[in-house]
Design a protein that fits this description.
- It contains twelve helices and twelve strands.
- A hairpin with a 3-residue loop joins strand 3 and strand 4 (100-106).
- The chain has helices spanning 2-11, 14-49, 71-77, 108-114, 138-144, 183-189, 209-220, 230-272, 274-282, 287-324, 335-359, 363-366; strands at residues 56-60, 66-67, 83-96, 100-106, 119-122, 133-137, 151-156, 159-170, 178-182, 195-196, 198-203, 224-228.
- With 370 residues, it is of the alpha+beta class.
- Helix content is 55%, strand content 20%.
């Protein structure tokens, strides 16, 4: 009899039920979309902000250079997946056939990940051991009247090193005035074997690893200058906090509106069913029986709304992911339980006042004259 009453109550009031279902579906869809983005945004934002370049600096605590051998143990001992890319840098003055230039030695294979914002005319150099090619800053190229495919020759007494320009770099900083070569060639030509000026790293920071990594390295290598590049790593956390706060606010507003809509509709349903509740009470139904019946009806609608809303919400999350990050949003394990819990909570809160009103129906007054 209990389930018969529940099913008939839902079937005979389809319009009211549809309004409650629609309100809870919208709430579930928004929660699913926001939660999907929330739990995946750290990885997506970390990936997006890597376009700003390296976010970690290693340099000598004293002097102008440090042994290159210091860098490799740091990279080897870092947790797996923490460091996306890294390169040592060596700077110095060298002479070409035309004028003196600043030479920068790097690991070419990591360079594109560390400075993805460089505008390159020509091609990147893909391997670190390439000592036949170089890249050149756009301002230096203009001064020397060089372009991709031309040759530049380094001169040191009787020694000469001819390099083919593979790419012209526009970085918007001092790099525009530099000749970029492989690290080993720079060490040889600058007479600084085994030395580097500093190193730059791209470190994952989706859960704040940069600061922890810096603190650990500072403790292990007190003679090094170890620090995050704050304009990159700090902005990542600030942007994430603001976006997460905005998503939480949007979800809360939608859930409140859904709760109000459900509450209003349930109040109207209770008004229409006052005689039904009065008759049930006259036939011996207790307050607990009526409460269970109304909560069961609301719970069934809420469960159906969660199933439909979760599907639409995940589709919405994909739309947001492609629009903002140009990537799909992964379905994280906590999303569905969170949506289910919040939707049932909203439905339960919205049903409190209507249930109390149903419990206060007086059979003698409502059924008078029946």
């Amino acid at each position: 009899m209990f389930w018969l009453l529940v099913v008939r109550a839902l079937r005979l009031r389809l319009q009211r039920v549809a309004v409650v279902f629609a309100a809870l579906t919208v709430g579930a869809a928004i929660v699913t979309a926001m939660a999907s983005v929330y739990f995946d945004i750290n990885a997506k934002m970390s990936q997006e902000l890597r376009t700003f370049g390296a976010n970690f600096y290693l340099g000598p605590g004293h002097g102008n250079s440090l042994p290159a051998a210091t860098l490799q143990p740091i990279l080897d001992q870092a947790p797996k997946g923490l460091i996306n890319a890294s390169s040592p840098y060596l700077y110095g003055m060298a002479r070409t056939e035309l004028e003196k230039v600043v030479v920068m030695g790097v690991w070419f294979e990591s360079l594109q990940q560390l400075v993805p914002y460089w505008q390159v005319k020509g091609d990147w150099i893909g391997v670190s051991f390439d000592d036949r090619h170089a890249m050149i800053g756009v301002k230096l190229a203009d001064r020397l009247h060089l372009k991709a495919g031309d040759r530049v020759t380094l001169v040191d007494g009787q020694q000469r090193q001819s390099l083919i320009i593979k790419g012209v770099v526009e970085a918007g900083d001092a790099t525009d005035n530099m000749l970029i070569v492989n690290l080993e060639l720079a060490q040889k030509w600058l007479h600084q074997p085994g030395a580097i000026s500093n190193a730059m790293l791209s470190v994952n920071n989706d859960i704040g690893q940069v600061d922890a990594f810096a603190a650990r390295l500072q403790q292990q290598y007190p003679d090094l200058d170890v620090r995050p590049i704050l304009k990159v790593s700090a902005s990542e956390g600030q942007v994430l906090d603001k976006i997460k706060g905005l998503m939480g606010l949007v979800s809360a507003v939608i859930l409140i509106l859904s709760s109000l809509c459900v509450n209003t509709t349930l109040m109207a349903i209770v008004g229409e069913r006052s005689r039904e509740f009065a008759l049930q009470k006259a036939l011996g139904a207790s307050a607990a029986d009526i409460s269970r019946q109304m909560l069961a009806e609301t719970g069934i609608i809420a469960l159906a709304a969660v199933l439909v809303g979760s599907v639409f919400g995940f589709i919405l999350a994909q739309v947001l992911g492609h629009a903002v990050f140009n990537a799909a949003i992964a379905l994280r394990a906590p999303v569905f339980p969170l949506t289910l819990a919040l939707s049932l909570l909203v439905a339960a809160v919205a049903a409190i006042v209507p249930v109390r009103r149903a419990l206060h129906v007086e059979p003698a007054l409502v059924l008078k004259g029946e």
